Structures are given as C-alpha cells and as structure tokens.
C-alpha cells in the first residue's frame, strides 16, 4: 500500500486525510497540536511540527512515503516542498514556493517580472520607529501594514495617515513568525471586492479557474474574509485579464501542479494586482465550494497530484449562485447555537459546525477563530445580493 504524508490535521484538513484513505492510501499525519482531530482520522500520527523541516524529513524517511501534501496550510507548504524535493517525490520547486510564501519576496518577484505591484518597503520588528515613519513619507496614503508571512488578512491594517502606525506594527508583529513586516501603498480598486478563490494546475497549465468575490466582515476594517460568492461579478475583460496574468505567473514560477489560493485586486485600469498567491488549497473550505460549483472533487485532485497521478477535472458549472458564509462572533463567550433565518434556511445545502454547545468562542479576527461555515445556493443573482447585503441579520451566533 502506498503511503501519503499529510502536514496538518485541523478540522478543515480532516477531509484530505479521509479522502486519501478512501483512495486506498496509508495516511501518515504530522501535527504539533495533540488535540487536533486529524490524529483520529489518520492511520498513523506523529506529534511533529509541520514547519520543522528536519523532523518532517525524518518522518517521511522512516515511513518511506510516496507523496507529501500540505492541504490548506501556508506554514507547511514550504517544508512539504523541501522534503519532497530531497526525496525525489512529486513537488513544485521549493524556491518558487518560498517566493509565494513570503510577501516581500513575492513583491520583488512581481516587480522583476513586469507584474503590477504597489510601491513598498520592508523592515524588521524592533526597527527605529522614526526611520519607519520617514520611509512612509515616500509612499502615497492610504498604506497597508502587514506581516510578510501570514495569510487570510491576519495582522493587516490600512492607515490613512501615520497616526496609528505603532498599533498597526504591533498588530502585524503578533501574526508574524519571521518578524519581517511590509508597508505598501493601498491599491485603489476598480472592482468593489477582493477577488479570491482557487486555481488548479496540472503539467504547468491552469486547468481550473475558480475566481470568486470575497465577502468581508463589517468589523475589523472589513479586512477579514467571511465568505466567497460565485459568479463573482467580473466582466469578460476583467476575467480574461485575471486568467492571462495567472497563467503568466504560474509559468514564470514553474509551478507544475496543485491547487493555489488567490487574492487579487483590479486597479482603476483593470491591471491585475496579486495580493497573495498561496501555494496550497484555500482555507474556509474553498475547495469544497468549488467542487460543488463545478461538479468535481478538488480534495481528491490534491491527493492524487501529490502522489504523482493526474487528477480528473472535467468541470461543468452547475446552475445557480453559490456563496459560503463563515460563522463567527465579535465577542468572547461559550457557544450556544446558530440562528438561521427562515428566509434562507432552504438555501443552505451544507453546514459545517466546528463547535459543540459550551465550547469557547473567541472574537473573530481570522479563519482560526471561525465557528463553522454555511454553504448556500440561490436561483437568482438578486437573491444572492440580498443575502450578501444582510448576512448579519439573516445569520447570527448565540452565546451562553
């Protein structure tokens, strides 16, 4: 029996473990959190950090695995690529994965390869604040302060002036592992939402374009993702620009296979600005959502690709308008339940709840604090728009 090493066993990653087992693979899991649910789904579990390259390498060697998958995990994507390269297993170039995984390296790559890119500069945590303020004056406000090695808008602040810089730096630092922060000019967008979603690559070509529009929460300056809607509302010209630049990026980086998560802005001239291109499947169950939309199984595709097998992706868009909604709370407490209005209850076709009654709920500032996800389908765009405009009236969390 062939073996696959999976890096990460959170609630959102369990589906990859179960899918690999369904496909007949022996599943080996690394995860440093002993209470993560993946350990109960995998055939064998190692209490090993997914970011510890040498420890992951030893597990892969000892188990003689045939493939490695860091499903929906940013921190584990690079260790997976490094170890797979060492062992001659299917992998994207680790150098390319490293470029995608760190924002200042990615911004440098974009600039050097004639992609649209905002002016920016980086600095280390602990740098002289007066020097940072001086550098900021070279940029046009508003500006964005963020970590260089986080995803999902964690640690991000938009500033209209230098006021609040200290707090923005502290917030970014709290989500930074490498302690390198970036400041860049805010991109004035021609489109009312961040364009998110996933793409899937095989043999260097994008075979699935799953661009969607991101929903953002009303709290936290509207930066935290709370869902994705499809179709995204882009016109044909905008979609063509996005597809062209995405393929150009994939080719330039020599990405060979797998699912990648995208965050894109279109500026006033419809130029494509890559906020992030994560070398892994998207969080908030984006692969499940896209599988529903296109009638495919993207989780299975991820597993097969990691094992060197060509996935079957014969997409056929289903009728309807699809959206996910991340269940969340803006205060701490104990989970009591979810209220879903009768107006939309029949549109909810899948519901994933991570919490049991009485479990601790934390203030939502990123995907890690999510309570669950609702999957909805509507017959008309008007119904979808009404839901997106009234989410917090139609769905709410009850705390004890």
Short description:
The chain has 400 residues and is of the alpha+beta class.
Notes on the protein architecture:
It is a single chain. The protein has helices at residues 14-22, 38-41, 53-63, 74-87, 94-101, 103-112, 129-136, 165-174, 236-253, 286-294, 298-306, 381-389, 391-394, and strands at residues 3-7, 26-30, 44-46, 67-69, 120-124, 143-147, 157-159, 180-185, 195-202, 205-216, 225-230, 257-266, 272-278, 321-327, 333-340, 348-353, 360-361, 372-378, 395-399. The chain is an alpha+beta fold and 400 residues long. Strands 13-12-9-10-11-14-18-16 form an eight-stranded antiparallel beta sheet. The model has no long low-confidence stretch (mean pLDDT 93).
List the helices and strands and how they pair.
Blueprint: E1 3-7, H1 14-22, E2 26-30, H2 38-41, E3 44-46, H3 53-63, E4 67-69, H4 74-87, H5 94-101, H6 103-112, E5 120-124, H7 129-136, E6 143-147, E7 157-159, H8 165-174, E8 180-185, E9 195-202, E10 205-216, E11 225-230, H9 236-253, E12 257-266, E13 272-278, H10 286-294, H11 298-306, E14 321-327, E15 333-340, E16 348-353, E17 360-361, E18 372-378, H12 381-389, H13 391-394, E19 395-399
Parallel strand pairs: 1-2, 1-4, 2-3
Antiparallel strand pairs: 5-8, 6-7, 6-8, 9-10, 9-12, 10-11, 11-14, 12-13, 14-18, 15-17, 15-19, 16-18
Helix pairs in contact: 1-11, 3-4, 4-5, 5-6
């Amino acid at each position: 029996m062939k073996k696959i090493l999976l890096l990460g066993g959170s609630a959102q990653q369990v589906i990859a473990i179960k899918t690999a087992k369904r496909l007949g693979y022996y599943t080996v899991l690394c995860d440093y959190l002993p209470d993560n649910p993946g350990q109960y789904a995998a055939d064998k579990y190692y209490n090993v950090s997914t970011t510890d390259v040498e420890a992951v390498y030893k597990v892969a060697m000892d188990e003689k695995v045939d493939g490695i998958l860091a499903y929906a995990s940013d921190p584990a994507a690079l260790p997976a690529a490094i170890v797979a390269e060492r062992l001659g297993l299917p992998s994207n170039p680790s150098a390319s994965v490293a470029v995608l995984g760190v924002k200042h390296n990615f911004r440098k790559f974009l600039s050097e390869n004639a992609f649209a890119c905002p002016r920016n500069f980086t600095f280390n945590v602990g740098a002289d604040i007066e020097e940072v303020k001086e550098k900021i004056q070279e940029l046009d406000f508003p500006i964005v302060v963020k970590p260089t090695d986080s995803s999902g808008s964690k640690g991000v602040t938009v500033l209209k002036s230098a006021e609040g810089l200290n707090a923005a730096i502290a917030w970014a630092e709290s989500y930074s592992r490498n302690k390198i922060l970036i400041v860049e000019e805010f991109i004035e967008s021609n489109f009312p939402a961040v364009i998110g979603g996933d793409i899937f690559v095989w043999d260097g070509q994008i075979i699935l374009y799953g661009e969607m529009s991101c929903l953002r929460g009303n709290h936290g300056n509207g930066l935290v993702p709370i869902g994705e809607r499809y179709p995204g509302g882009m016109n044909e010209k905008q979609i063509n620009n996005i597809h062209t630049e995405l393929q150009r990026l994939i080719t330039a980086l020599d990405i060979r296979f797998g699912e990648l998560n995208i965050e894109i802005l279109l500026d006033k001239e419809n130029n494509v600005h890559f906020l992030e291109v994560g070398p892994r499947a998207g969080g908030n169950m984006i692969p499940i959502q896209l599988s529903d939309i296109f009638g495919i199984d993207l989780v299975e595709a991820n597993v097969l690709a990691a094992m060197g097998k060509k996935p079957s992706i014969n997409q056929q868009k289903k009728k309807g308008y699809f959206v996910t909604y991340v269940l969340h709370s803006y205060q701490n407490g104990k989970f009591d339940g979810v209220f879903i209005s009768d107006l939309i209850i029949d549109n909810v076709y899948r519901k994933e709840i991570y919490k049991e009654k009485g479990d601790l709920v934390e203030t939502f500032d990123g995907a890690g604090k999510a309570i669950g996800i609702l999957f909805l389908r509507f017959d008309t765009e008007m119904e979808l728009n009404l839901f997106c405009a009234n989410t917090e009236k139609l769905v709410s969390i009850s705390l004890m």
